[in-house]
Amino acid sequence: MTTIDYSAFDTPGRGRGLLDVFRYGYLLRLLIGKSTSVRYRNSVLGWFWSYVRPTVQFLVYFLVVGQVLGMHRNVEAFPLYLFSGIVVVNLFNEAFGAATRSIVENKALVRKIYLPRELFPIAAITGSFIHFLPQLAILLVVCVFLFGWVPSLLSVGLALGGLALILAFILGLGLFFSAFNVRFRDASNMVEIVRTVATWASPILYTWVMVADITRDIPWIFHLYMCNPVTIAVELFHHAFWQPAVDPSDWLGWPPAMGWYIAAACGIIVVVNVVGQYVFRRAERTFAQDL
Q: At 29, phi and psi to the nearest 5?
């Protein structure tokens, strides 16, 4: 009787979740290349849209909030303050939406072959990050040539820390909502609401000091506001790019207990990723049937 060694084979449909992504690096690169090449296919301006859209958004906010509502009088170098926050929120909104749609948009692959389903939201997030880089490049040019910003280890570390926080947060949310979106297409509408809230509930059109003043009698609201990972990432970007460009007398400073807020945001990110991975693993069993 012939004995077959099955040790080199995996049971179909059984994987190790996010850990399997490292084993399928080639497929991940293919999916990332697909997402970046398809994004502006048959577009006249192509990649130039990555510069046009954030520039128009910045101009609208600057003219309405900065000039009409007078925020430029309350915040020194308000254009830089505004833009350094907008790029973070744009990354969150773009990557979160792309990750949520990733499974449904790749339903042909999901129904035909097995591969770690986590590859799809991760590829979507990575593709959005690639399209975020032109905005970051514009921010760096503005900082250096218009405001005399000189990079330091501290500013670079703060910027990288902000990126790490926001990308980790997006990953957890993306896993959860991409799985939810396969069964219930209402997820897309929920994501739009979250993206709208993220834009206005982060200190890009105003400062954290204003929130602290309004919530002085109910401080728990301010604590909850500051524990938001998007808020923390925006503040880290402000201190990386905006703070070095303004006079020390105009610096807002760190919010009180900022270390605890960062720790709370990291805790929220860990919980969101654990829950997102759990829900994703449970839901992926029926992805092919639901699609």
A: -65, -40
CB distance 61 to 205 below 8 Å: yes
Q: Is the pLDDT of residue 207 over 80?
A: yes
Tokens of 62: 């600057």
Is there a contact between 244 and 148 (Cβ–Cβ < 8 Å)? no
Per-residue b or e along 223-236, where b marks 16 or more CB atoms closer than 10 Å to that residue's CB: bebbbbbbbbbbbb
Cα dihedral: 133, 134, 137, 138 (round 10): -140
**Higher model confidence: residue 10 or residue 172?**
172
Q: Which residues contact 245 (CB under 8 A, 6 or more apart)?
A: 77, 80, 143, 147, 148, 149
Instruction: Say how far residue 210 (Cα) sits from the centre of its chain.
Output: 24
> pTM for the whole thing?
0.86
